UniProtKB/TrEMBL annotation:
Pfam families: 2-Hacid_dh, 2-Hacid_dh_C. SUPFAM superfamilies: Formate/glycerate dehydrogenase catalytic domain-like, NAD(P)-binding Rossmann-fold domains. This is D-2-hydroxyacid dehydrogenase family protein. Belongs to the D-isomer specific 2-hydroxyacid dehydrogenase family.
């Protein structure tokens, strides 16, 4: 059986303990980022299974049509817009999902909040350039943390905020607002009030059609000129171009970003990377060893289970698993 794993940017997958689950199989791992459909078709031509790293590889109808040998896509984490599930079903390709974890993304978000508020990156860069204490940051104590999306990550951020003595303000669905109030936090009176009151505002929503471009230029214009917007979820939650324009207009005053509309970014002149009031990381939210062991451990176990004909939970159960009579 041939298993292909694309987009291992860091060349780390073979170093994971869970990789031993693939012993005895032919495994091909690619370490670059490729979007050209023809190149992908050539690389995946004789693959029995693909193991996809989150949403890095687009698998659509046109690509699947060139992969007659493909039987399984084992997804790390959940299926999202990168994968045409209906097309997989039409082509007889089973799809299996894994689990996620809120731990590493929440920790990264808090690290970005601390770094951005204390202006640590420019201070550190200056120090390494031979300069001492070039700027003045701010403490988190007393600042209001706004959380849009009170799920597993949002709830962790709220607990971190309590440790730093930051009041928490929540916006989201009615269920999210009610859950936040049960936990002793405050639900915003309105969407407008949420953007206007938050000193640090974190977006923690899943990207689905209902949330795509849900944050508008009007929302951002309501933020304080001293406010920090944090996005570790998906860049497409914000209307195209709205954040850069808002930053240039001074509301919000700062941003900390782990996600971008086009990834990976290879242009050092990208306007968000060049903006003096933006702190950027290269989509590291889930990129952490323990998280990788969880994600890929599930994905590799699903491959073994599928081809052994064992009971499987498919994202598209219309496709019959290998060995299913």
């Amino acid at each position: 059986m041939h298993i292909v794993i694309p987009d291992d940017y860091q060349d780390v997958i073979r170093s994971l303990d869970c990789f031993a689950q693939l012993d005895g199989h032919r495994v091909t791992v690619y370490h670059d980022a490729v979007s050209d459909r023809q190149v992908l078709a050539e690389r995946f031509a004789d693959a029995d299974a693909l193991v996809l790293t989150r949403e890095r590889t687009l698998v659509d109808e046109a690509l699947l049509a060139q992969l007659p040998n493909l039987k399984l896509i084992s997804q790390t984490g959940k299926v999202a817009a990168h994968l045409d599930l209906d097309a997989c079903t039409r082509h007889g390709v089973a799809v299996m999902e894994g689990r996620g974890s809120p731990i590493a993304p929440a920790e990264l978000a808090w690290g970005l909040i601390l770094m951005a508020r204390r202006r640590l990156l420019p201070a550190m860069q200056a120090l390494y350039a031979g300069q001492w204490q070039v700027n003045l940051g701010e403490r988190l104590y007393g600042q209001t943390l706004g959380i849009w999306g009170y799920g597993k990550i949002g709830q962790r951020l709220a607990r971190y905020a309590q440790a730093f003595e930051m009041p928490v303000l929540v916006w989201g669905s009615e269920g999210s607002r009610e859950a936040a109030e049960r936990d002793g936090h405050r639900a915003a009176a309105s969407r407008e009030a949420f953007f206007a009151e938050a000193d640090v505002l974190s977006l923690n929503l899943r990207l689905v059609e209902a949330t795509r471009h849900i944050v508008t230029a009007q929302d951002l214009a309501r933020m304080k000129p001293t406010a920090l917007l944090v996005n570790i979820s998906r860049a497409e939650l914000i209307a195209p171009g709205a954040l850069l324009e808002a930053l240039n207009q001074g509301r919000p005053g700062y941003a900390a970003l782990d996600v971008f509309e086009q990834e990976p970014i290879t242009d050092a002149e990208h306007p968000l990377l060049q903006h003096p009031d933006v702190l950027c990381t290269p989509h590291l939210g889930y990129v952490e060893r323990h998280g990788y062991e969880l994600y890929f451990g599930d994905a590799f176990a699903n491959v073994a289970r599928f081809f052994a004909g064992e009971p499987c939970v498919l994202a598209n159960p219309e496709v019959r698993p290998a060995g299913d009579d």
